[in-house]
## 1
Amino acid sequence: MLVGAGCVVDHLQTDVAPPREEVLARIEGAAGVVTMMSDRVDDPFLSAAGDTLRVVANFAVGYDNIDLAACSRRSVRATNTPGVLTEATADIAWALIMATARRVIEGDRKVREGRWQGWYPTELLGVELHGATLGIVGAGRIGTATARRALGFGMHILYTHPRANPELEQEQRAQRVPLDELIEAADIVSLHVPYRPENRHLIDAARLARMKPGALLINTARGPIIDERALLAALQSDRLRAGLDVYEHEPQLTPGLTELPNVVLLPHLGSGTVATRQRMSEMVANNILAVLRDEPPPHPIS
């Protein structure tokens, strides 16, 4: 273990997030802390660690769980793991697109439960992807990688982003449009924006109502970008289909969501490959070691 070569490591031997009280008790006196997306790094967290804390290394590319101002006030560096999970997350976006469009989970369940009685012409009809319009909300690294995978399907790409993406426009003739125009035109809307306060409920009841009947909504970004109660209502009306890897109040889901056949639900698997998680671990270790050596961390966010 890279960090273990030069540090005493206190490792929580669990795959389930421990109670916050336990985390705060364990980090007292630590020089560095590896945090997950479920860990709120705020003033109480930093106070519990004490004056010894020098670096918080987030095991994720997103860092909406970290109060950067609080870290700055205490001269604590914050780092993340950008870039390394781009391709794995784009793969999961496409896994959700395929499963949702072609009703893969419903078909698998039907076969397993012994309800399949043989082929017939109207069984589990899905959405044809070839030639469809894919809307990319947030054309950063992951959004661009997701759009690039659409090339083999002959898709038309719309995207929305604060800046133009010449790479996407040249490679796939993608067109940059306002969000509401994208929402109305796309057969598939795939979310790839970071979570910031202004992006909370970016996809709300009004925008869900603008989507085409039968359109797909895919979220591999952050749960609070979608108003989950509004999405539940839209799914219950059978207007839309959805594929979700993240949730508004993760790991809790809005009651009723799991009962619906027109939504595919994954347990936040975006970066979940052996190679990607290994690289993330190495990045976290290198970030911590750099700060403890009084060097700039490779991947700083503050």
## 2
Amino acid sequence: MVLTSAVYSEIEDHIRRHLAEQRVPGASVAIIQDDQPLLLSGFGFADIENQIPVTENTTFPIASLTKQFTATLVTVLALEGKLHLDDAITKWLPEGGHKWSMISVRHLIAHLSGISDAPMNDLDDQTDYTEDEFVSTIASAPLLWQSGTKWDYCNSGYVLLGALIHRITSQTWYDAMSEKSSSPLE
């Protein structure tokens, strides 16, 4: 397939219209066929205030998109028998002591843990903390409510899942994800 100027123009119009409708300031777009790029282009702005355009080389922080991959990786570990979703997290995260004894892996995945994000919000984002420092910081706060009784979006729960993955696999999140996602599920 070759992208003619008419097809490219139609794609570009569609992207610009969609960005405007969704109020998205910018996006990078790639169309790949048979490992060959047919289109690599940026649209809109990476930085609106400074009018810096998006290019094909613009990188974007992926932020909470990692949560779906983390949940999948934990599920794969469960399918492999390395954990059970209803296990108490204190099996791998003893820093939480008795207050975490009723929190299951499933509670962390589903944002039902009752763990607070407040301690993480107070950390200096310019400091490179260790995993143990993150876990201890999260463990220092009281629970907001009994696990399983209330839903609340919780970044700290996913930090703990990352630590749990590391402690189970002895691999970083990235290495565990690379290994598990590059091989077929059985």
## 3
Amino acid sequence: MRLAWMTDVHLNFLEPARRHEFLESVQAQADAFVISGDIAESPSIYGILGEINHVLCKPVYFVLGNHDFYRGSIGTIRGEVTDVAERLEWLTYLTAAGVIELTPQTALVGHDGWADARLGDFDTSDVILNDYVTIRELFRWRSEFDLDKPALRKVLNELGDEAARHFERVLQQAVAKYPRIIAVTHVPPFKEAAWHEGRQSDDNYLPHFTCKAVGDAMRKVMTANPQSRLLVLCGHTHGAGEVRILDNLLVMTGGARYGDPAIQHILTIE
């Protein structure tokens, strides 16, 4: 089985004809596809998911990234995307799914994840993502120019913890049966995997680029289950890199450029 991995494709940056051309160009390259978030933005996500389903006509497993919630609500969009994926033949929204068997030896799990402000130095960071202006749950400001960091930290912690609970549950289920597991998430779950412009992110960006809670959950499960191997596919930082966290835990972070979507890797699944 050939599984093509894409991330941060930002298909809303392409005109419809160019989107169609891109999807047609990758359709024959794999038997199934996995997308680790940032597919579009909330006003266009539903239509673009429909295009992906219609053009690829092969299994597509995906999570959402922060951009997919721009100008919307995390809770609302997750609910509506769950409904869309249930209606469309080829789409599986991993955040709303459990353990998926790709082959008798390999399982797939996933969750959107979220940067949880626990790594790096959130208090002194001067980074203000568009997330904190355009996503309803993350709009936490004391005034027009003063970000309410304690309130924002609380929300980010909760989002990270939610993703961690999901991963701990599905990974525990997967390691009981499968020797190989692929986990898909948008935000890198370890600081070593937060690649940007050829190097690992610093303390200024790490609070916004990593999810420590998910990393801790993955490390816990895989340390206790050395018989299974976990490959994590993520994106978010637009910087490509690879890091081995444990002997049985490898993280691949995909690179990206706006307006130039591409397949990151084609994995052979046995």
